[in-house]
Amino acid sequence: MAERPTPTMTDTLTVSVLGTGIMGAAMARNLARAGHSVQVWNRTRDKAEPLARDGARIADTPAEAVDGADVVLTMLYDGAAVAEVMRQAVPALRSGTAWVQSTTVGVDAVEALAAFADEHGLVFFDAPVLGTRQPAEAGQLLVLAAGPAQQRAAVAPVLDAVGARTVWTGGSGADGGATRLKLVANSWVIAATTATGESLALAKALGVNPQDFFDAIAGGPLDMGYLRAKAGLILDDGLEPASFAVTTAEKDARLIVEAGQRYGVRLDGAAASADRFARAAAQGHGHEDMAAAYFASFDPDESR
C-alpha cells in the first residue's frame, strides 16, 4: 500500500460507504449532501442505485468502491459480513486510509476487525451509531466513537455529516470501547421493546384497553416516549417500513448475550428477547419493525 496523506477537517473528502441498507443509504445520502464525494457498494446493487440521484457513484465491487477513498465507512449486517467485504476491498486501499466501522458487531468481532486494520495499515475507528431510520435520514444519529486521538480530525467531517453528536468513548478503537457501549445501549432498547410488546399482548388477552394503561402511567416515572412510539406502531399497523427490523434486533440481542457470556454475566432478558424475535421472524414478521416481536406472544393464527 502507498501512504495516503491525512486530510484536514476543511477538506472535501472521498468517502466510500460499503453497505447501503436502511442506515447505510441514509448515511451515504447525508455525506453527499454535505459536499463529499461518495462512492457506494452494496451486495444487492439495486439497493444502491437510488443513491445515484444524490450524486453517489455506484460501484460493482468493494475494491472499486474504495479506490481513492480518504475514508471508508462500513455499515453491513454483522462482523462476518464486514470482514468478508473488507478482505475484498483492502487491495485497493492505501496505507493510512481511515476506516469508520459503524456496523453493530460483537466484542470478539470488533477486536478481530481492529487487528485486520492494523495488519493492513488502516486507521481504525470503532464507530457504531444509536438511532433508526428517521434519525439516520435526518443526519441526527448519535455516533459512539473510539479511535486514535491524533487522527480524529480526519474523520470528523464524516461523523458530523451522519450524526447530530459524536461521543468519544476513549481508547484507541482496538479495544472496542464504542462497541461495548453500543451493546449496553442496545440491551436497554431491546428490553424496552420486549416489555412494550408483552404489556400490549397481556392487555389484549385480558380485555384491557391499551389507552387505559397509557392514561394510568401518563406523566409519571413509568411513562416514556419510546413506549408510546413502539406501541403506536403495533396498534396502528405501522410496522412497515421498518426503522429497525426484527431480524436485525435478533442478531443484536444474541451479540449482547454472547458479550455477557464472555465476561461471566447471565443476561436472561436479552436471551428471551432473542428467542421472541426469532419466533416473530418465523411467523413472517422478520422484515417488520422490531416492535413486531409483539406477535411472538400469540399463536400465528391468533396474532392479528
For the structure shown, list the relevant keywords.
single chain; 304 residues; Rossmann fold; N-(1-d-carboxylethyl)-l-norvaline Dehydrogenase, domain 2; 2 domains; six-stranded parallel sheet; three-stranded mixed sheet; 12 helices; disordered N terminus
In short:
The protein is an alpha/beta fold.
Tell me what the structure shows:
The protein has 304 residues and is α/β, with parallel strands linked by helices. The chain has two domains: 14-173, Rossmann fold, CATH 3.40.50.720; 180-298, N-(1-d-carboxylethyl)-l-norvaline Dehydrogenase, domain 2 (Orthogonal Bundle), CATH 1.10.1040. Helices cover 48% and strands 12% of the residues. The protein contains twelve helices and nine strands. The protein has helices at residues 22-33, 45-48, 62-66, 79-89, 107-119, 133-137, 152-162, 177-206, 210-217, 225-235, 246-262, 268-285, and strands spanning 14-18, 37-41, 57-58, 71-74, 98-101, 123-126, 129-130, 141-145, 163-168. The strands form two sheets. It has a six-stranded parallel sheet, with helices on both faces. Strands 7-8-9 form a three-stranded mixed sheet. The N and C termini lie far apart (56 Å). Mean pLDDT is 95; it is low at 1-10.
